[in-house]
Fold this protein.
Amino acid sequence: MERRKRRRRRGGRKRRKRRTVEGRKGRKGRKGRRSRRKWWVIEGRKRGGEAGGSGGSWRGGRGGWGGGGEGSSRGGGHRGGRGGFSPTTTQFQGDAILVTEMDKMTISGDNDNETIALSKRVLAFRDKQWVFPIRKEYNTTSGRPTYVIANYYELMTSTQTKIVRYVFEMTGPNRSKELVDSFIQKEFPTVVEYLCPDYGGYLYAPEDWIPGKQHFTYPAGHEFEGQTFTLKSRLVLNVDEYRDYLAASDVPISSILPLAHEETENCVIPVAFYAVSMALNAIIIRNPRLKNTHLIHEKGNTMYDSRKGKVLSQDPCSISGLDTGHSAQIIVGLHASVRPGSQRCLVNASKVTNLYYRTLPMEDIVNLREGTHGQGVNLENRLLDKTEEKGVNQCWTGVLIRVDLPDGTSQYRVLKRVHNGNAQQVIWETREGVQVTVEMYSIRKWCRAAEGQKFKVRLAASGSRDMIYHSSSAPFEYLATLKDEFSNMFHRAQDNLTLSRFGLDIGKELLKIQARTLAMPRVMMGRNSTADIDSDNGSWRPRGKSFHSPAALLPYILLEIRTGARAVRVDPGVGKSFKDLIIALLGKCRGYGMTGTEVAASGEFTLWLTSSRDDPRVDIENLFKGRIEGFKGGAAGAQVPLIFCLLPGSDSRYYNAIKRAGDVLSGVLTICMDGNKTSNQKIARDPGSYCETLALKVNLKCGGINHSTQSDLVLQHIFPGLESNTVMLLGADVSHSGRRDLPSISAIVGSYEPSHSRLYSEVAYQKNQEMIENMAEGVRSHLDRFHDKHKTLPRFIVMFRDGVSESQYRQVLDREVVAIDAAVDRAFLQSGTQRTPERPKLVVLVVGKRHHTRFFPPGATDKRHKTLPGLVVDRAITAIYEKDFFLQAHAAIQGTPRPAHYFVIRDDMDLSDTQIQELVFNWSFSFGRSFRSVSYAPPAYCADLACGRARAWIQHKVDDIRGGENLYPASASGSNSSSDITAVAQANLHGIAGDCGRLHEDLKETMCEAECNKIVCVEQNMDKVNIGNKRGLINIIEMHDA
């Protein structure tokens, strides 16, 4: 025995010594035990090594250097362990540091410096505290290796790239981009292409350029009268260190890595290098802006071609029953921004589409007509009625208007409000002193929107479909258009002196990068059956299978809403087509295992409305209070009925009124169906697919579970005891109303059972900001409910935060994650160590959807060629140091798929990159309302849906305020001061939340609970300028100076 121990010690020393020379071979792994279940055999090695696994059902561990399965390749067996690599020695800052080459990585051909640089960071991490969890591997091995084309070009810098930054201050009534360009053209005509403003307070120039003077003022009568310009605070930007930061070489670790206490502008890149990135963004966009005067330059590096506008179809956004959408046009453009990449600087290029106001006179674009019927209303012969006034105000309030005066000059005003007034009102005074009244000028000819303003009205369903149709394109079409547009703007620009003067050049080809396609997860249906997932589109058809946990159908009521009656009335019974649809739906539910589907409806009603233009809210609320509530019964514990509602169309007012009446007033469950969709001939002939989607909602609302990923082996390996309720998923999102004096809506959702397909919501109204104020209270409420249900706290909590940008990552970490910690600590202390032996571990990921990254399959030639679900990209274009990745979890039904971007800001479990990617992808199949994977994590998806539901409760109040009504008078002095506007905003918040924001008591265990928080907002002062039309009947427009 002693001899054997001495031999082991001697061998151990020998192996440790050989590790620094040639790398030891991995040890043979132990054989896994055989499970009692016949279908789960684990005979592979638990730990990978020289022999790898054989027939294993779980991935073996990683072998030693030079060890592993077949040499340095993947280990044997099903997902066997990965082999090791030969060591590589690299010199870094004069110190000999052993670095292991961890992966053979290809970016646009060949490059493995990325993994070497990563190894240096891992070694340096031992003595460094980071803001966010750092990346520890690029050698993730899950899934099938593949290559994709990313919409990134390489931006080449050189030793000649020398940039200086000036603080550029401008005072005066005009601060437009056009004025900045005119100033540079006037004062520095010989170096116009070398001076690059970012239109946000900085001016970038070559290092050898120094202005002759720094302060510029102008006398009366000059074109710049009243304006002052100042150039100061000259700063040389270190581009060389920025390149070293990307490569992690030739620069001290202490200078390139941000400390945990450092404040950075975008929280990912250190301040000094973020300034270089901003400078490069301003430089690359300078030449296209100068050469293409027709471009609309948005904030940042997004440009739209004003010559390529497309008008929306008829009635694209119905506001109070009025078609105001002809004020908008779809404009296609190009986005190009500089992004840091691993080992190189990149330019992210993508197509963009947005809605802009048309620059025609208002008489040509505002059609005051009911839906698609009739002709435009002649405003010269009558006043606006209340509905028309409200609709026009919602569309045009806050828009910059160009006013063409009778003397031939133009002025710019911000439209505040349209309302009726006096014909003798003086609208303006000409330079000659002539007073112009309403009678002397017509509203139909003087007013038009200034160019380059985004359309701010929410589109109806028809407008959204039209927008998607014009903006989406197949990957091969997208790629061809992108290459052509980018080349025209950057590569083919004649004499691009800007880039050459700064020593810059943009590559001619898009990057081809390495990616992986993850394996489909295991989705369980009823009776232990497994869903057959189609890996090409991430969906499955549960034919012959039941729901995972089918529920019993609740007592239900049929409600049909129709328009066109002479008077509002309620008739018994519903139409035959609606009843046939419900019969088909109940048959589908019965096939999925639900019980009680043979029971007839408890009641049937048809609500007749006089016109689609009328507000249906009052009539629908009266019906629910007078008829629907009578079916609930007064006994305690009585079942909440389910209302099937057939709406006359896709107008959101009907949906909002139904949800508010059911959720807030009566406490009943509702499922709405669009009459336009159900009357479609294809659905009428074969309603199977439509009823299949509805059946998913019915089972969830009745308390069932449609499918589950809790038996997936990947998830069970990451979270031991997953089926014993050890994991809670959380999701959070914030929805804004578009104005700072209106409240934002925050939602926090959580799961209490292992399938994670049923999520419960906590909704709150708060001041207009992105950070969630009630994060601690919301998380604490979910933990309390979890504890009440399972008598213990979860071992692991995974939070998905949606809707924040890179510049807000640090705020989320410092404010919201701290609040989550406080809630977890408090719940843990109250739970006691006997029931909860250890504090729950927390993992927080930020989900990003509004980015410009796209991936394309190489060699795509038609619409069928798309990237597959499960595509993961975690190198080349991702963060240099932190844990992040792009994941396309879904298959695009239309157009080019957009991957979701995940960034890890907290990781108590110390998960590997592979584990994080796999668990996110597998959970993408747990969304209960679909038999397919969704585009991003279901908790974040459901938080967004919860915000939308809460918005439906208050939308009629928001529309009234947008339309100019003062619903909640504040105790203000009337001076339009900041304090007055703050008081108005606070009154709006408390008034809206108090009137219509609380969920009914009977539904608190099925949906979400709303709370009200305080609000403080600041709004700019507004001066009133009244303008109207002639003939004694006028519409006054209140404006303030632009």
